[in-house]
Design goal:
By secondary structure, the protein is mainly beta. The chain has 3 helices and 10 strands. The protein has one domain. The chain is about 15% helix and about 35% strand.
């Protein structure tokens, strides 16, 4: 649970309501150079700069069409999946998913509390999701229907299993010099045994 800024706590204590914006930040590779490229979207209407941990980031306005599902968190290393939707018609969305390499892109989702009177940020945005992009399928709606791009984000520790060592005689003896279980394994394919002959 993030610690809330005193200004946010004071606004909550007034019980007049709440206002918050969602910010989505992607770090993907440039397909041509391999260099990391960044791009951000938020639920506001215009482009806006936000400062997060001392870094100023430009977020493109996507309006209220960014749809973030329920965010579930917990203690542990279990992998969790999150989904959010972006409008596919934005030129910036096309750039992020077609101009850059979105596979395994780093994704951060922040929430920015807003002042109810001025509509300006009340405090620094706080992060609610951090993970990697595992897919970004596009759905084109029928006539009159909604079109969107769904970002599938995996968070938590992504455990990977390395390839097992090749079970050659040398590999086994590197672990235990007295292991002779595969001493002749490299000669096995050279043996010729005739059908029906017992050796």
């Amino acid at each position: 649970m993030p610690e809330l800024d005193p200004l946010v706590q004071a606004q909550l204590a007034e019980r007049r309501g709440t206002a918050a914006m969602v910010l989505v930040w992607l770090v993907a590779k440039n397909r041509s150079t391999g260099a990391p490229e960044t791009i951000g979207f938020w639920t506001g209407d215009d482009h806006e700069n936000f400062t997060i941990r001392g870094e100023t980031r430009l977020y493109y306005g996507a309006g209220a069409v960014i749809d973030v599902g329920a965010v579930r968190s917990g203690v542990g290393i279990r992998k969790r999946n999150h989904r959010l939707r972006l409008p596919p018609m934005l030129a910036e969305t096309r750039q992020a998913l077609r101009g850059y390499e979105p596979r395994q892109a780093r994704v951060e989702v922040h929430v920015c509390p807003m002042d109810l009177d001025s509509g300006r940020p009340l405090a620094e945005p706080f992060r609610i999701i951090k993970g990697v992009l595992e897919g970004a399928p596009e759905t084109l709606g029928q006539e009159g229907g909604a079109s969107f791009t769904e970002l599938r984000i995996a968070t938590g520790t992504r455990l990977t299993e390395g390839l097992p060592a090749y079970k050659s005689n040398a590999a086994l003896q590197a672990v235990n010099p007295t292991d002779r279980g595969r001493e002749y394994s490299d000669l096995g394919e050279e043996w010729r045994v005739r059908w029906g002959v017992v050796t």
